[in-house]
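Lab notebook, bench 4. Continuing the backlog of folding jobs that were queued last week. Each job is logged with the same field layout so the records can be merged later without manual cleanup. Today's entry covers Helix-turn-helix conjugative transposon-like domain-containing protein, a 80-residue chain. Filled in by technician R.K.

JOB TYPE: sequence-to-structure
TARGET: Helix-turn-helix conjugative transposon-like domain-containing protein
LENGTH: 80
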Amino acid sequence: MVKTSPSRKNLLPFPVIAAAAGGNIDAINAVLKHYEGYIAVLSTRRGYDRNGIPFLCVDEELRRRLETKLITKILTFKVA
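JOB STATUS: finished
OUTPUT FIELD FOLLOWS
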C-alpha cells in the first residue's frame, strides 16, 4: 500500500486543472469548491454591533471578487 503525504492528498487532480483551464464549467466549479474555505478565511472581516462588541463575518463582496479573480486566472492558466 502506497501512502500519500498529507500535502499530496489535498491537491487537485491534474485532469481537473487541465479541464478548468480549458473552460469546463464543472471543473471550474470543482476548483472554486476546493478553495472555498480559503477564500472565506481571506474575506472574513471584523465588525462591531451597536454595543461595540466585535464579531466576525464574511464580506460577501470581497468573497465574490476573490472568486472572480480566481476564475480569471484559471482561464488564463497555460497547461503544458
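OBSERVATION: Residues 35-80 form one domain.
SIGNED: R.K.
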